[in-house]
């Protein structure tokens, strides 16, 4: 029961042309990305969505595809994304998108890219109604203003607003029914929303609650909505764990022995550790935790111990490189919690120096860096004084 979204980004935007400097509204910038990307990202976060078909203006198709490919390379949405050219009318664009969908698509959602503030809960309500057996579903809001029919500045009638509803997108359909509705309508019947095609076919259309924030960018005054629509940052957590063995002359390892450093701070008189780099177990765990916040892989992928360039490299470099990647991905670190697990050496005398060093590396106030140390009560390889472990937990905010 595959669900796809046809995202309509094929309009000409004539009502906004002067106010937007001639830029079509689907290509206006929101959070540094084109307006249609906001809706695409929302649908991609909905677990039931298998893919998004983006419908672009025919004249802009090649350039839009190229720009979209760059966005997809930098921000993988996790669902299939396809493109096709729109048509003269809105319904022609919908029909083109519908025709280009995969054959296994059971349900289709049609959404206007000019409604960038749609939320996953609304999408979920439409999909749930489809799965419950309704063949056509639209989100609606109650009409709060009195509506009158007017001709040539004269009122002809006043409508009962309790029976009226304002319609939004996405509108959801059984894909086969929507194809049938298009075939029945032919070329002569022009509509402003897709549900009208189903109504014209004589089939029922089910409603679900819409959302007042799901507004459409139509007129010049609506551009103010984009100025206020900075994406909310997402809370993230990254976890890092690392282990290093102590050097033992009786059983030399394959890697060289290094003087112990923790958080970039030298621990004099401590056992040497076996490592390709400088062997700072705490900063290695911290690097992994930073990468974890932005799904950036791990330290071994970025700095493999098979690379001679990293021989005896200061682990602070690894942290700095991870921070560069994380900041490019929009991460702001707010707190770090570190734990060192070792029977020897005693960490207490060095704890504050380690903590201050880590805070400086991360450009954080020391109040945002916590350091704990514990033993394993003589158990395991740390208890037997064969090595040392470190755990790092990084929390922060990431721009969505």
The shape, in one word, is elongated
By secondary-structure content and strand pairing, the structural class works out as alpha/beta
Mean pLDDT over all positions: 92
| Percent of sequence in beta strands | 25-35%
Count of separate structural domains: 2
Q: In which range does the helix fraction lie?
A: 25-40%
The count of DSSP E runs of length 2 or more, i.e. the number of strands, is: 20
Low-confidence runs (pLDDT<50, min 5 residues)?
Answer: none
Q: Please, how many helices?
A: 12
- The fourth-level CATH homologous superfamily of the largest domain is Spore Coat Polysaccharide Biosynthesis Protein SpsA, Chain A
Kindly provide the name of the CATH class of the largest domain.
Answer: Alpha Beta
- Provide the gyration radius in Å: 29 Å
Distance between the termini: 29 Å
Q: Look up the CATH topology of the largest domain.
A: Spore Coat Polysaccharide Biosynthesis Protein SpsA, Chain A
CATH architecture of the largest domain: Alpha-Beta Complex
Largest sheet: 8 strands, mixed
EC number: 2.7.7.60, 4.6.1.12
Cofactor: a divalent metal cation
Domain 2-C-methyl-D-erythritol 2,4-cyclodiphosphate synthase: 237-395
GO molecular function: 2-C-methyl-D-erythritol 2,4-cyclodiphosphate synthase activity; 2-C-methyl-D-erythritol 4-phosphate cytidylyltransferase activity; metal ion binding
């Amino acid at each position: 029961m595959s669900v796809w979204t046809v995202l309509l980004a094929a309009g000409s935007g004539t009502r906004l042309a002067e106010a937007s400097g001639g830029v079509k509204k689907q290509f206006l910038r929101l959070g540094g990305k084109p307006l249609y990307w906001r809706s695409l990202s929302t649908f991609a976060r909905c677990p039931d969505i298998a893919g998004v078909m983006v419908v672009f203006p025919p004249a802009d198709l090649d350039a839009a595809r190229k720009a979209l490919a760059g966005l997809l390379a930098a921000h993988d949405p996790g669902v299939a994304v396809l493109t096709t050219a729109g048509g003269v009318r809105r319904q022609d664009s919908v029909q083109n998108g519908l025709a280009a969908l995969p054959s296994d698509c059971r349900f289709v959602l049609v959404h206007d890219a000019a409604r960038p503030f749609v939320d996953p809960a609304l999408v979920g309500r439409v999909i749930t109604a489809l799965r419950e057996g309704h063949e056509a579903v639209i989100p609606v809001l109650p009409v709060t203003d009195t509506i009158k029919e007017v001709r040539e500045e004269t009122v002809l009638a006043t409508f009962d607003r309790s029976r009226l509803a304002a319609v939004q997108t996405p509108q959801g359909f059984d894909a086969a029914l929507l194809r049938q509705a298009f075939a029945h309508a032919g070329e002569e019947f022009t509509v402003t929303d897709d549900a009208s095609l189903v109504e014209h076919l004589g089939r029922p259309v089910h409603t679900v609650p819409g959302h007042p924030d799901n507004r459409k960018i139509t007129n010049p005054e609506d551009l103010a909505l984009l100025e206020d629509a900075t994406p909310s940052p997402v809370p993230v957590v990254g976890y890092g764990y690392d282990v290093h063995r102590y050097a033992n002359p009786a059983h030399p390892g394959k890697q060289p022995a290094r003087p112990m450093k923790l958080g970039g701070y030298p621990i004099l008189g401590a056992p040497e550790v076996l490592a390709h780099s400088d062997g700072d177990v705490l900063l290695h765990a911290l690097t992994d935790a930073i990468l974890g916040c932005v799904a950036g892989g791990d330290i071994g992928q970025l700095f493999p111990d098979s690379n001679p360039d990293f021989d005896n490299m200061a682990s602070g470099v690894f942290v700095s490189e991870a921070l560069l990647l994380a900041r490019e991905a929009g991460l702001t670190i707010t707190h770090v919690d570190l734990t060192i697990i070792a029977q020897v050496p005693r960490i207490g005398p060095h704890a504050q120096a380690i903590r201050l060093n880590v805070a400086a590396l991360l450009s954080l106030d020391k109040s945002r860096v916590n350091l704990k140390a514990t033993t394993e009560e003589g158990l395991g390889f740390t208890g037997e004084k064969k090595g040392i472990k470190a755990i790092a937990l990084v929390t922060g905010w990431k721009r969505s």
